[in-house]
């Protein structure tokens, strides 16, 4: 039998090659992505058998995609969905397929697989006689329509603090009912502040992103920011230092003490060891400063964390500072702008279910 003649995509321009590469990196539609990869491989001189071997598609499919691209250009990459024939798999079976997909192979006695691939799931469905036969693409569409997506497994850090609820309620009570003659302060460290290009977002012409240099070098060391959020005024106060030991933290507490003489300071902070140093505790006890420790793994209860997120977003993301003086000036400019618009902080997490917790949740929801 004579060998079928090889089929290759027409010669691609530099701009078409770049556009194909962009599509292979950003396309969310699997059909468009697969077609773009086939065209790119053909444009690189790879034969149809090489393409089918890598992409797990048929020879006819690869040839059809190449011919269509040669005739219609990039329009050929977009799937043209039509009504199609009526579904052969009922809605009840589709729900059953989605339920099975959300299990793990071990629950069915299948060893050597910690998760389903489309191929192994399709084989399992046929073996269990859920369906007579099903292609991987058909299975993919059923799962997508059923709201089942391929997701990365995440972790959830559970607190082992036996007094979690008591500590949390103490912090929330300080937020909502600051003591008479007292001032509630949220303190924490931000950093490390190293010099590096930072990704960010800005308004730009379409398909023309701002570009920063690519570098792995980290010169001039790192700096650390120690900051405090005053809930009475909503203003942010900070110092930038080379270290973040208990000495630097104690020095910062002394500046806060001097700023508000005659008031009891209730300083909410996490369990970072310098915060609990004996010298820090002793000084605080002598100078009318209450150190309120958050529960273990409860840093998200610190109101200053959202301020740090905004600082990172507006002052640092999308920048490439070449010196610490330049970076520190950017942070100072943001803090001045922010403090000029500050308002008192009240009603922390007013609609959050944490306000009604009577016990720590055993696992993530």
UniProtKB/TrEMBL annotation:
<dbReference type="InterPro" id="IPR012337">
    <property type="entry name" value="RNaseH-like_sf"/>
</dbReference>
<protein>
    <submittedName>
        <fullName>Transposase</fullName>
    </submittedName>
</protein>
<dbReference type="InterPro" id="IPR038717">
    <property type="entry name" value="Tc1-like_DDE_dom"/>
</dbReference>
<dbReference type="InterPro" id="IPR009057">
    <property type="entry name" value="Homeodomain-like_sf"/>
</dbReference>
<feature type="domain" description="Tc1-like transposase DDE">
    <location>
        <begin position="183"/>
        <end position="325"/>
    </location>
</feature>
<dbReference type="Pfam" id="PF13565">
    <property type="entry name" value="HTH_32"/>
</dbReference>
<dbReference type="Pfam" id="PF13358">
    <property type="entry name" value="DDE_3"/>
</dbReference>
<dbReference type="GO" id="GO:0003676">
    <property type="term" value="F:nucleic acid binding"/>
</dbReference>
<dbReference type="InterPro" id="IPR047655">
    <property type="entry name" value="Transpos_IS630-like"/>
</dbReference>
<dbReference type="InterPro" id="IPR036397">
    <property type="entry name" value="RNaseH_sf"/>
</dbReference>
């Amino acid at each position: 039998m004579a060998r079928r003649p090889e089929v290759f995509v027409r010669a691609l321009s530099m701009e078409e090659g770049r556009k194909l590469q962009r599509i292979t990196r950003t396309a969310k539609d699997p059909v468009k992505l697969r077609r773009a990869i086939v065209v790119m491989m053909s444009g690189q001189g790879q034969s149809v058998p090489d393409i089918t071997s890598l992409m797990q598609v048929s020879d006819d499919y690869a040839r059809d995609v190449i011919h269509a691209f040669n005739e219609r250009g990039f329009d050929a990459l977009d799937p043209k969905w039509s009504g199609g024939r009526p579904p052969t798999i009922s809605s009840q079976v589709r729900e059953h397929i989605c339920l099975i997909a959300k299990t793990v192979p071990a629950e069915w006695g299948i060893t050597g697989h910690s998760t389903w691939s489309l191929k192994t799931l399709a084989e399992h469905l046929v073996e269990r006689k859920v369906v007579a036969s099903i292609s991987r693409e058909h299975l993919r569409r059923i799962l997508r329509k059923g709201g089942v997506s391929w997701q990365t497994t995440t972790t959830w850090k559970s607190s082992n603090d036996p007094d979690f609820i008591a500590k949390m309620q103490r912090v929330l009570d300080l937020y909502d009912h600051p003591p008479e003659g007292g001032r509630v302060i949220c303190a924490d460290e931000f950093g490390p502040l190293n010099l590096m290009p930072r990704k960010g977002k800005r308004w730009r012409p379409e398909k023309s992103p701002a570009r920063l240099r690519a570098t792995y070098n980290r010169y001039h060391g790192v700096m650390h920011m120690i900051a405090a959020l005053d809930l009475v005024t909503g203003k942010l106060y900070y110092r930038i230092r080379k270290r973040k030991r208990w000495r630097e933290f104690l020095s910062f507490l002394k500046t806060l003490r001097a700023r508000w003489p005659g008031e009891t300071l209730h300083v909410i902070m996490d369990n970072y060891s310098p915060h609990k140093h004996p010298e820090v505790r002793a000084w605080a006890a002598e100078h009318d400063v209450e150190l309120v420790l958050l529960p273990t793994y409860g840093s998200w209860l610190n109101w200053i964390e959202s301020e740090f997120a905004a600082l990172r977003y507006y002052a640092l993301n999308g920048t490439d500072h070449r010196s610490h003086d330049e970076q520190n000036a950017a942070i100072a400019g943001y803090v001045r702008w922010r403090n000029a618009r500050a308002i008192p902080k009240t009603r922390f997490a007013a609609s959050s279910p944490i306000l009604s917790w009577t016990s720590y949740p055993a696992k993530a929801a």
